[in-house]
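Exam revision sheet. Question 4 asks you to relate a sequence to its structure. Input first:
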Amino acid sequence: MSFHIRLKELRQQENLTLRKLGEKAGISYSIINSIENGRIIPSKDVALALAIALKIEDRESFVSLAINPSQV
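Answer key, structure tokens:
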């Protein structure tokens, strides 16, 4: 599964809007929107901030999905 699809699924499971997730992660909602729509690939730091905001336990796998999409 690609990072942008997984991110959107997790955000929706937490019932978070793009703006709310952005506030929790300290990232602009427009950046998150671009990530979810596959227009940009997040940096490791951005992916980690999203993982923390979404309370993901296996943060390493989530971040590696973002930075190594071809290895998944």
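Marking note for examiners. DSSP finds five helices and no strands in the chain.
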